[in-house]
Amino acid sequence: MAGETLITIVGNLIADPELRFTNSGAPVANFTVASTPRSFDRETREWKDGETLFMRCSVWRDYAENVAESLTKGMRVMVQGRLQQRNWETPQGEKRSTVELQVDEVGPVLRFATAKVQRSQRGGSSYGGNQGGGQSSGADFNAPAGGSQNDPWSTSGSSFDNEPPF
C-alpha cells in the first residue's frame, strides 16, 4: 500500500523460524528478532546496553519456506517490513492486541559472518505464486527476465562457479 512506513530492525533470532501452513495450504514462517541498542558512556568509558526490543515477524508463501530453510537461532539478521496491529478476543472475552512486522525483506548480517547464497529453484506455486499474492510471472526475486548470455541471473547457457557473471 502507498504511504506505509517501512522500518528496519537489526538483531538476533531468538529461536529457529517456525514454519506452519494455513488451511488453504499457504506457508507462513514466524520468528522473533531481539534488538538491543548499545551506547558508549563517556564518563565510565564503557558500553551500556539499552532495553531489548523483541519484534515478532511473519513472512508468507515461498519466502516463508526460504526463511525457514536458511535462518537459524542466534543468527544476526536485518529485517525490513511494515508494522501491523492485530486485535482479537480470548475465549474468556478479554480483548487483546499485538504488533508484528510483516516482512518485506530479510537476510543475514554479514558484518561478522559469511553466507553463500543459492538461488531457489521454486517457481510459482499452487497457493498464489509470489510474495504479493499476485500471479507469478516466472521472474522471481526481482531478477531480470530473459535468458540471454548477458543476463547474470540466467540459468541457461552458463555454469555457476566462483566467479561472478558480471
UniProtKB/TrEMBL annotation:
<feature type="compositionally biased region" description="Polar residues">
    <location>
        <begin position="147"/>
        <end position="166"/>
    </location>
</feature>
<feature type="compositionally biased region" description="Gly residues">
    <location>
        <begin position="125"/>
        <end position="136"/>
    </location>
</feature>
<protein>
    <recommendedName>
        <fullName>Single-stranded DNA-binding protein</fullName>
    </recommendedName>
</protein>
<dbReference type="Pfam" id="PF00436">
    <property type="entry name" value="SSB"/>
</dbReference>
<dbReference type="GO" id="GO:0009295">
    <property type="term" value="C:nucleoid"/>
</dbReference>
<dbReference type="InterPro" id="IPR012340">
    <property type="entry name" value="NA-bd_OB-fold"/>
</dbReference>
<dbReference type="InterPro" id="IPR000424">
    <property type="entry name" value="Primosome_PriB/ssb"/>
</dbReference>
<dbReference type="GO" id="GO:0006260">
    <property type="term" value="P:DNA replication"/>
</dbReference>
<keyword id="KW-0238">DNA-binding</keyword>
<comment type="subunit">
    <text>Homotetramer.</text>
</comment>
<dbReference type="InterPro" id="IPR011344">
    <property type="entry name" value="ssDNA-bd"/>
</dbReference>
<feature type="region of interest" description="Disordered">
    <location>
        <begin position="115"/>
        <end position="166"/>
    </location>
</feature>
<dbReference type="GO" id="GO:0003697">
    <property type="term" value="F:single-stranded DNA binding"/>
</dbReference>
